[in-house]
Amino acid sequence: MSTVAFIGLGNMGSPMAANLLKAGMTVRVFDLVPEAMKSLADQGAFVSSTACGAAAGASVVITMLPAGKHVKNLYLGNGSDKGLLDVVAGDTLLIDCSTIDAQSAQLVAAEAAKSGIEFMDAPVSGGTAGAAAGSLTFICGGSDAAFERAQPVLKAMGMNIFHAGGAGAGQVAKICNNMLLSVLMVGTSEALQMGVDHGLDPKVLSDIMKVSSGGNWTLDKYNPCPGVMETVPSSKGYEGGFMVDLMVKDLGLSQEAALLSNSSTPMGALARSLYVNHARQGNGRRDFSSIFEQFAPLKK
Ligand code: NAD
Q: Where is the 6-phosphogluconate dehydrogenase NADP-binding domain (predicted)?
């Protein structure tokens, strides 16, 4: 049975690594925050004291980190700190599941290729619930061979596995998706609040819009209005889920990508501005559906 190293055990990485253990794989884990490793150790993971220690000798390395700078530093090294590329064997498959800019993913893939090592970007969609349920969507960028080799580990954590193209293509597809998601979340929030302002019950309005032409993922799975869906972050004080700061990061990536390709993305630009404003009001660590509060009257 192959050994998988899993580095970055936050809201997403922790349940993803747990699903590898459930699938019977040998898993070594590392996170900068030691407490993040405790529950995985209880589930049978081997805890490493460094990222390089976890990765050395593993046949597959998976990373789930906040942003591009973390991914570059970890794989390529930083100053006197060795990078993962310095310690892994030539036949190791490297899979980065973080959402980062396509250029950073392409840079790491190119550096890995110099040593004959396969690196694939495989950002995910499905949120923390999808990570826990093992039903994530993986959006991969890399060679056909890397995509084939990744199947057993990705299938243990997800249901839909797409090959978007070569290095970086997974990241491009992912930020297109998240830009659309932010627009849907903002639009759904303002529509729901307008209905409430006119005396409608948000549950009834949600049921109507869900099966009408305004239906979308946020109404089906992630309603932003507290009390409409019991299990989602909006009904739990907007805790857990997908942080506003991470959405701001992704919308920044989508605007950088739009500049590079000279694409017109007015809705994405507006959504970024709204989310930046929301973060600046102290909401950065809350779930991204809390943007709903920007439209709701202030509580006295
Ligand atoms: P998080 O902040 O909860 O977790 C990131 C983890 O990485 C933290 O535990 C941190 O300590 C660790 N880390 C940072 N640098 C490290 C290093 N050098 N070595 C080891 N560990 C390190 O973030 P998250 O919500 O798990 O998201 C991770 C990535 O997945 C982000 O790129 C995010 O955009 C993306 N994503 C998140 C969601 C979601 O719903 N949360 C959904 C899809 C994609």
A: 3-165
Q: Give residue-wise pLDDT tens across range 172-192.
A: 999 999 999 999 999 999 999
Residues forming a β-bridge with 29: 6, 47
Q: Is 174 a catalytic residue?
A: yes
Q: CATH number for 172-294: choose from 3.40.718.10, 1.10.1040.10, 3.40.605.10, 1.10.443.10.
A: 1.10.1040.10
The alpha carbon torsion through 261, 265, 266, 271 (nearest 10 deg) reads -120
Structure tokens at 181: 């998601």
What is the Cα–Cα distance from 34 to 36, expressed in whole angstroms?
5
| Model pTM score | 0.93
Write down the ipTM of this complex: 0.99
DSSP H or E run through 136: strand 136-141
Atom of ligand 1 nearest to the CA of 9: 9
Residue whose C-alpha is closest to residue 122's, from 107, 108, 137, 104: 137
Question: Superfamily for 3-167?
Answer: NAD(P)-binding Rossmann-like Domain (3.40.50.720)
Distance 70 CA to ligand 1 centre (A): 10
Taking the CA atoms of the chain, what radius of gyration do you get in angstroms?
20
- Give the pLDDT confidence score for residue 298 in this predicted structure: 80
